[in-house]
Amino acid sequence: MNELDVSVLISVYHKEKPLFFQEALESIATQTQLPRQVVVVKDGPLTESLETTLRNFVDRHSDDFEITIVLVKTLRSLGYALNKGIQYCKAPLVARMDSDDHALPNRLELQTAFFSTHHDVKIVGSVIQEFNTNWENVIDYRVVPTDPNQIKKFAKKRNPLNHMTVMFKKSFVQKIGCYREVIGFEDYDLWLRALQADEKSIANISIPLVAARVVSLQKRRGGLKYIKQNYHARVHFLKGGLIDRQSFCIGVLSAVVVGISPTWLRQFIYNNLLRKGRV
User: Fold this and answer.
1) How many separate domains does the chain show?
2) Among 275, 96, 79, which residue's Cα sits nearest to residue 186?
3) Residue 170: CATH number of its domain
4) Contact residues for 65 (Cβ-Cβ < 8 A; gap 6+)
5) Is 26 part of a structural domain of the chain?
6) Which of 253, 164, 167 shows the shortest CA–CA distance to 216?
7) Would 233 be classed as within a structural domain?
8) 213-237 pLDDT, tens per residue?
9) Which residues cross the membrane (predicted)?
10) DSSP SS3 for 164
């Protein structure tokens, strides 16, 4: 099997569940075309179960692709951990992967092929399919815009990319400053800066390439902590000229409504009001 000139970048920390982490890693090892390298960033000390999961993965697949383990001595933030990992990525294309999701079998092959035919694109994501326990049992989808004009318009109010699906050109992301310390919204900040630098830089593939766990997504979307992070991030975006005042107000108000809603209502809002379509 020919390997792709891609580095897969995963960050993991001590609260991750070993079974979820194992599934995420194995979904990379069972791709239709394997990557050149997998970079795993340990964001602070891990539990023994997570360490065992990682050691077993290395033992099973060190002959299939290069595996690079990067240690951040104390727990920092996702943006910090990913920036650290990018330094160790050897391939020109970097594929992000969350430590609790599942990459569909042809993810890396399709995204690499997309870059070969869309030379202006620097960052490409996709739709995600959501699941609870089995990635093949789809509960719902998060559909993102594919038209360049719609992506630019969408990005003013909401994140235009599903972070766990993204593959990007390493040189471009480094050129615009990589991830910044915008807690909870490190990726959104990066995409807005990418569009500011080059409005044609972002694209989405209209089919799901990653399955994401619904429980993990819901936890990230709710509560006072989410509301505060959203507000501070959008203040940062506004001051940096990445969004306008109208987009700021709409984004903050939407986050308050979603954040204070009980889980069942939050799910209803996302499924029926905020989602733009189905695959």
Assistant:
1) 1
2) 79
3) 3.90.550.10
4) 3, 34, 35, 36, 37, 38
5) yes
6) 164
7) no
8) 986 555 556 678 889 999 999 999 9
9) none
10) helix
